[in-house]
Specification:
Elements lengths: L14 E9 L1 H11 L9 H6 L9 H16 L5 E8 L11 E12 L3 E10 L2 E12 L2
Antiparallel strand pairs: 1-3, 2-5, 3-4, 4-5
């Protein structure tokens, strides 16, 4: 299903945006530089293993940002985003060779007068990585 136009008659269950983002270790290093988050669990396998992680993890805020960017692109105007929140439920492990795919599907959850709640399903390896991911947006 293609993305719906903002301002068109939104209905609960409509998919308004979706995409898959491929993350690489290089992307994690670039994000670390941009964000200033140089925690070695995001780029060093030995450190991740030492602290009991299954591998190098994508930054939670990177995952969160990728998810909301999907909606902002659909909205066309970031000023239409009223609020956004998530729970970090599972890590995104980024393999050194294969990388990791993060899938984002944005679905209309509630339609109000001039606002809608957009529910985000964010998965990696068929596992939900962001729970209770919702954005409230102006539709007009």
């Amino acid at each position: 299903m293609s993305a719906l136009e903002v301002g068109s008659a939104l209905e609960v269950g409509d998919i308004v945006a979706e995409r898959t983002v491929h993350l690489t270790r290089e992307a994690l290093v670039r994000y670390a530089g941009a964000s200033g988050d140089f925690n070695p669990i995001h780029y060093r396998d030995d450190v991740a293993a030492r602290v009991g992680l299954p591998g190098v993890l994508a930054h939670g805020m990177l995952t969160m940002g990728l998810a909301i960017e999907t909606i902002v692109t659909w909205l066309g105007d970031p000023g239409r985003l009223v609020e956004y929140g998530v729970r970090f439920t599972r890590p995104v492990v980024v393999d050194p060779e294969e990388g990791a795919d993060v899938r984002i599907v944005a679905t209309v959850g509630v339609v109000e007068d001039e606002h809608a709640r957009i529910d985000l399903t964010v998965t990696h390896a068929e596992t939900t990585v962001l729970g209770k991911a919702h954005a409230r947006v102006r539709t007009v």
